[in-house]
Amino acid sequence: MKLVEFKWSFTDSSVPPPYHRSYDLIFREDSFSVQIHSYGDVLFERREKFDMPDFQQLLDSFHIKKLVHQVDKKGCTGGVSYSMEILRENELSEKRYVYLCGGMKEGDLGGDVEKFDQYLKTQILPQFSAWMNQVK
After folding, report:
1. Domain with 93 in it: what CATH number?
2. Number of domains in the chain
3. Of the four, 4, 19, 114, 134, which is 20 to 30 A from 93 by CA?
4. For the ranges 19-23, 27-31, 63-67, 112-116, which has the lowest average pLDDT?
């Protein structure tokens, strides 16, 4: 089945609203969208054209960063989370998350998710930090 959409989300820890920044990055073959939010309030939103070579680079990066499925573990509060959703032929085919708290990982998304997150924000969307700075 052909991959049509990849969604990567970061949910910040529970901090006061002026400091809380979560985001969703949604990639399709022809476009991407970015939404930065704080407890449901949208602070920044952007949708732009995305070329197929960039989309292929994104898909290849899964293998580079070795994101994997792992057994879900339970038990910690106060951390941050990352999640990803993959749509194939407009049908959700994969949904994974990891919750990072106190040096522990909880969830079914394994691998170096923080490194993958940095890769997305620096190599795939190098303008991301400028967008984050706009909402401070």
Report:
1. 3.30.1560
2. 1
3. 114
4. 63-67
